[in-house]
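Name: Helix-turn-helix domain-containing protein
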Amino acid sequence: MNFRYIKSANTNQLVQNFYELNVAETSIPLSSKIIPTAQSHIIFVDSEEGIETNFKSITYKSLGLIVLGQSYKSYTLKAIKPYFNFGISFHPTALYKLLKTDISKFTDKHIDLSKVDSPLYSLLNPIFKENLKGEALASKIENQLAKLDIYESKNTILVDEVIKVIYEREGIINVEELLKIFPISQKNLEIQFKKIIGLTPLKFIKLYKFLCLMRQYESNKATISQLIDYYAYYDFSHFSKDFKLFMNLKPADYFKTENKFLSNYLKE
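Structure predicted for Helix-turn-helix domain-containing protein:
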């Protein structure tokens, strides 16, 4: 299995990064938990059988170009055949700016891009038939996306500014503090976040903070005890509650096992 991130060369706040994954026969069958990254994605899957993702009782079979909406909890990825996966990880507001539609309808869903937006599918699909990989593929995608008209409004600008603060604080902030910084009511902020991002402000903050902690841990930058303190969890019990919420797994069960795919996935 070979997983790596590819940096975005563009500064237009659409694409935050790309990732490329090659799963060989030696890694099959594959079954792994995936932690949401507080982003929406468009991914390309090339395989004989496609891949499966499971949300609660719903199973999605993904092959070709797929829209991945926001998710609040981890989900399971399974593959029974080798596959190639190239992902476009968008800035939280980017999919809304591209599709110009309520993004919450994609939350916890993986949907064929051709069924979501035919023009965008027609723009991107030919690129993946050129047999490009890595940085060359990422560059071609960014060049194509740069041709699109991006929807901007006072609400997208506001939400972008709120996200910037959440990023700067690494999720160590609450909604009440945000309301003191920005001229918006809590109800309207929730409406705009859900429509533009696909998650409420509270869920986005909690998820992003947890993601930051897990990335620090998997990068061996600190111990769990140090990270629990840094990210302002009251105690291990509070952290454990969030861990089970996002991972559907006890911390002890995660930390005593090795998950190469998830570990690489978290090392941005």
